[in-house]
Design brief:
The protein has helices at 3-8, 37-53, 71-82, 99-102, 107-118, 130-136, 187-196, 210-218; strands at residues 10-14, 20-24, 29-30, 59-65, 86-92, 142-146, 149-154, 168-173, 197-205, 221-227, 234-240. The chain is α/β, with parallel strands linked by helices. The structure holds S-adenosylmethionine.
Amino acid sequence: MENNLLYNDYELVVTDDGSHSIRFATIDEGYHSTHGAIKEAMHVYILPNMAQHIGSLNTINVFEMGFGTGLNAFLSYLYAKANNCQVHYTAVEAYPVPKDIYTRLNYAELCINEIQTLYPEADFDNCINDFVKLHTAEWNSATRITPQFTLTKHHCTIQDINLPKNLYHSIYYDAFAPQFQPELWSKDIFDKLCLASAPQVILTTYCCKGDVKRALKASGYTIEKLPGPKGKREMLRAKIESAL
Ligand SMILES: C[S@@+](CC[C@H](N)C(=O)[O-])C[C@H]1O[C@@H](n2cnc3c(N)ncnc32)[C@H](O)[C@@H]1O
């Protein structure tokens, strides 16, 4: 995918659950499902992944491929807050979303409402401004958004990033689809993530393609198919075989 396409072609769209997403008109590729960006993020990344560690880990180290709109980060932040859990969230992003787009995203209130329905007693009174804080946080250094949530965004490609060993408990693999960026779904990338994974790691992705399953398996992950979010039959959850 050409960089100039990524920089020049943003279009804000409203998905079926009322939440925004970004779409690249010329290649007809979006950041999220048109059936609902927040619903998809909850279904693919929060509930079958980070939420599974609540109760067994006091601190969860999350790695996200593609920070993008910050939607997964903000939902993770709210979910962790509701559960009084510490999160160190690391994301890599090659092409940051420009300010005039991220300031228009309608996620702050909708994400709070989404998590509040699961945790009616949780107090999100001071969280409304924290969505933008995720975007204004410095690149390439750790920012304490709250005492419980630290964000490190790396402005580089996943191919170039150096990752620590044995660290991440949750990996959100949210790259553009393999037909647009096949190089991001390769064994080389999954080998890198495997080395960076803690034994309890859970990796989830919306993509269930045969080549992706084979590449994950070849890197040492054991995969399971889960029912996909609305509009998709299946999604993938991967764990490290030796730790099962
Ligand atoms: C499907 S979008 C998802 C973004 C984000 N998770 C969200 O919910 O908004 C994929 C993201 O990967 C980023 N990206 C594309 N190529 C990349 C690369 N080689 N390394 C890191 N990020 C990349 C894109 O800029 C985009 O933000």
